[in-house]
Amino acid sequence: ERDLSIAEYANEVRLVRRDVALAYADCIYRADRLALSRETLGRAQQVLEVAERRVAAKDLPDIEANLVRLDEKQARAEVEIATRERETARLKFLGLVGEKATRTFEARSTLFPPDAAPLSTEKLEGLAFSRRPDLRAGELAIERGERKGNLARADRWPTVALSLGFSRAVSFVRNPDLRDADDNLGVGLLIPLPLFDRRQGPILEAAAEREQAAATLEAIRAEIVREVGVAVNRVELARARLTIFDKEAAKPTVKEIKEQ
């Protein structure tokens, strides 16, 4: 029971740490998104400034400048949305770690570089199986069910006890010389017969508890495999997207082509 309680406590700690890690990663994502939105807004404002000068010089129709103004307005709205999302992520993280809402911090990325070696699903699953406390708690629950079943089956057999008895029989007659007393000492065995109580209830209850624990353990194993697979797929998808982004960023701009 103590080991099971320790494993369950460790699993709760794992869940809290996972939530904190996810909240911190969300802070990083929201901060990066806000920075990108601000950069996009800066570029939109530069384009709008050029467009306004061209409109003033009668070099650009005002109706075409409206499209540029709309882009700048949308970019400004994206900055406002990204700002609110970053603040929401910040407050959520501070709440999880028990800090005040007025606390300021800078979320910095500690992720592995994009050119890191590909992830091994089998290796990650092995690490999860060896470190997940909820998996250990499931195993201990099965052992507890087995122990209860063994104890219940052992109680089906009667407990044999040794009995010892002593008695004295005295005869009462008028003649004192004829009076007699008999001392009797008896030894026996007490064997209760469980005719109606075969401990079937506790045995069936222990068997059901073990089956439920086994089903829960299999569900945990399946969930671990699913979580690892989803995480690996997300990382590889993000790696592929980043590769495409780097290739596009490496292409020369229109200005660079004209200068060539």
Question: Can you offer a commentary on this structure?
Answer:
The chain has 260 residues and is mostly helical. 70% of the residues lie in helices and 8% in strands. It has helices at 2-56, 62-97, 121-131, 133-154, 200-250, 254-259; strands at 161-171, 180-190. The protein has a two-stranded antiparallel ribbon with strand order 1-2. α3 crosses α5 (200-250). The two termini are 76 Å apart. The model is unreliable at 253-260 (pLDDT under 50).
Describe how the helices and strands are arranged.
Blueprint: H1 2-56, H2 62-97, H3 121-131, H4 133-154, E1 161-171, E2 180-190, H5 200-250, H6 254-259
Antiparallel strand pairs: 1-2
